[in-house]
Amino acid sequence: MNKLKEKKESKVKKEVSQKRNPLTAYFIHILDGSFLSKDGSVRNIPFALFVSVIGGFYIANTYNAEKTVRETSKTTKDLKELRSEYISLKSELMFHSNQSQVAQLVAPLGLKEAKVPPFKLYTNTENKKEN
Q1: CA distance linking residue 104 with residue 113, whole number of Å
Q2: Per-residue pLDDT tens for 86-118?
Q3: Phi, psi torsion values for 121, nearest 5 degrees
Q4: Which residues have CB under 8 Å from 103's CB, separation 6+?
Q5: What pTM does this model have?
Q6: Are 95 and 104 spatial neighbours (Cβ–Cβ below 8 Å)?
Q7: Which helix (H) or strand (E) holds 57?
Q8: What sign does the dihedral 15-19-24-25 (CA atoms) show?
Q9: How far apart are CA 91 and CA 83, in angstroms?
């Protein structure tokens, strides 16, 4: 009599499992541990490898993104430093290119500032042709 009762219960379980959607059946398969059986584990090897590869790509992508962010912040910091150096050198050059500063810098060499403005020299080209 127990065998008859077990057959009826197994039929009922099969009917219930057939009525459930595949996602629910998959979760029940995981929860009861039957996926660890030899058939289940062999069948799940490609999926496990796929998940491992995807996880590896995810980790590599994370490291690459962090490396890129570090390089970007380093480049930004270097750019700020170089910009401030450029501005300070430019202002120093503008200061040293003033006429008064140039006169002070060349005074030890014996050069003096001209008081008379420059003028043009003209040559007579007719005299050169005659010679």
Answers
A1: 10
A2: 999 999 999 988 888 888 888 899 888 888 888
A3: -105, 130
A4: 113
A5: 0.48
A6: no
A7: helix 45-96
A8: positive
A9: 12
